[in-house]
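Retro notes, item 3 of 5
We never archived the inputs for the NAP complex last cycle. Fixing that now. Sequence and ligand:
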Amino acid sequence: MTTGPTILIAGLGDLGGVCLELLARERWPGRIVAGSRHLARTGARVNLARLGAMAQGYRPSIEAVSLDLDDEDATAELLDRLSPDIVLTTAARQSWWTPEQLPPAPRAKLAAAGFGVWLPIHLVLSLKLMRAVRAAGSATRVLIAPFPDVANCVLARLGLEPTAGVGNLDEIVPKIASLAAARLGVAVDAVDVSLVAHHALETHVFEPTAGPMPPYFLRIVYAGTDVTGTVDGDALLRHPYPLPPGPAIHFLTSGSAVRLMRALVDADTRLHAPGPEGLPGGYPVLAGPGGVRVAPIDGLSREAAIDINERSHAFDGIEAIEADGTVVFRPEPAGIMARELGYRCDRLPPSEIAPRADELLTRFRAYADRYGNGVD
Ligand SMILES: NC(=O)c1ccc[n+]([C@@H]2O[C@H](COP(=O)([O-])OP(=O)(O)OC[C@H]3O[C@@H](n4cnc5c(N)ncnc54)[C@H](OP(=O)(O)O)[C@@H]3O)[C@@H](O)[C@H]2O)c1
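Structure as it came back at the time:
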């Protein structure tokens, strides 16, 4: 008999696998369930996480279950049976790093289109999950890993608001805290960072980049005093901080996800998260058993914070998200995808999310094959 909250990880790819390993080394979860379409493979990952955690002195309760998010009825039944306290979805038709595996020339062409054009392949399974959550009448908290800065806005417009997202701006905050503490010569915990920023900012933060930066708000406080200017917070934000390429950074995302999950079952904690309250971009938040809300930000109104992130959508290639959840893409990125992949999508009404995800994936795979790149 286990006590403590039940966590369901939906989709066990690279990010889900790292989240599983980190969760297995936490003492607060009662039961961790990893759900995937491939039970044998997931069972082996679960065994590895269990034994690794045990070798480290933990005694996690972890199990694997069959989960195909395309089957909404079966997902609703599973939610009903497990009654999870938290669902973390890391399921997507394809990850952010797959196009980065292309040879340099086509990779650069697609990179110029930005990230927003890939929205359907990141959004479609979260949409299906949220429909299943509603169908099950489940009160579970749902955290979205795939592109929450935009996905959560669309889901909210459809009446399917998840609790929040994970990662993204919360991957920038530790970098700033670490550099600011070093500059001040104080402990990291003595430095308090407040950041309002969109997913689109992240590409400018770890490696030097050309081109305009999205707007953001940054405030660094030490010993009750605003030291943002003293430590030159804007320079710290852009200070090169190389990270390994590809999915290795999922340890960073997973750290963010695990801390947010812990707060949801513990006590109100001031953290950062993308997509709270179905809002665009990311914010300082208060996360606790009551949910995740945007926290008050000294020096910035809630409206101004939302405006920063609304304006940032354009830097991810998104012109607007309309009241009915239709996403309007900017002409330049839509044009690149049309030229390169033969995929023309200027508007994405909610009813087209699933077929567009299939089309984009098919066209991308054909494109990758042309370059002799067997990405899968
Ligand atoms: N918020 C952040 O900071 C952040 C950071 C990193 C990644 N991400 C995003 O998180 C997502 C996952 O990234 P990743 O690198 O882990 O991708 P990945 O390795 O491709 O994993 C995605 C998983 O989704 C699963 N999946 C696909 N269709 C499914 C279905 N119908 N039902 C259940 N599961 C299904 C796949 O599992 P099977 O094919 O094995 O069933 C696959 O393993 C992507 O959208 C990525 O861009 C977000």
